[in-house]
Amino acid sequence: MDVSNSMLASSTDDPKGVSRLQRAKFILEKMIASMQNDKVGLIVFAGEAYTQLPITNDYLSAKMYLNSITTDMVPTQGTAIGAAIDMAVNSFNPESDFQKAIVIITDAENFEDDAQEAAKLAAKGGIQVDVIGLGTEKGAPIPVPGSPGEYFAYDNGQQVITSFDPKVAEAIAKAGNGIYINGASIHAVGELKEQLNKLSKTEYTRHGMPDNTNELYPIAVILALLLLIVDLFLPYSKIKWLTKINFFTKN
Known about the structure:
Layout: H1 20-33, E1 40-45, E2 49-56, H2 59-67, H3 81-91, E3 100-106, H4 115-124, E4 127-133, E5 140-141, E6 161-162, H5 166-175, E7 180-182, H6 188-197, H7 212-233, H8 240-243
Parallel strand pairs: 3-4, 4-7
Antiparallel strand pairs: 1-2, 5-6
Helix pairs in contact: 1-2, 1-6, 3-4, 4-5
C-alpha cells in the first residue's frame, strides 16, 4: 500500500471526498474478509518500502495492521513501487508451489524507480502483479495532517495538486501479467476477487513418515484370534502341580 502524503488527498474530484488512504483500507479490508485458505502479507511504501506484516494466514492480525497504517510511517516521501515489488517478491517462499500475486494500491505519483521492470521480473518468476489505482486525473489538494482546512503548498504559496495517471498504473499491471482496477469503482473489490480466483488452485498431498505400528496391528489381531480359537477346543482342567503351590500366605 502506498502511504505517501498524496494518499491523504481525495479519491474523487471532490476535495472533501473520502481520502485515497481510506479507500485503500476499505478495499483491502473487504478483500481480507473474503479470504479462507489464502495467506496475506502487507508492505507499505513511499520513498522507501517496509514490511508491515509478513505473509500469514492470521487475518485478524492483518486487519489490525491495516487499520494502523498512516502516511507518517515512512519518513521519506516518494513512490518507490519498484522497491515494494522487489520486497514482496522476496517475501514469498520460492519453494512453494502455490500461486502468488502482488496487489499494488497506489496513486502512482513521483516514481523513484523502474516499477515496470520490477513487475516484469516478478511475472517471470511466476508472480502476478495487479494494480489498484486511486485518485482522478483532475487531481485534488493534499490536506495537512492535524490541520483542518489547510493544504500542502509550494514555497511560492501555490497549492499542491496531486493527479492520477491511469496509463502508468495500467503499464505496471501489463508488465506484471496482471490487471489494472479503478479503485473508485464500486466493483473494485469484486474485480480483484475475480482476478485472484483465476489463479489455479494448487492441489497437494501431505507426506508423512510410515507408522510401523499400523503395519504390525493386523498381525497382532490375527494372532490373538488364533489363540482364542485354540483355547475354545482345549479341555478345562486344573493343573495338579500348581495346586501344591501356595501363592498367598497369611500375615
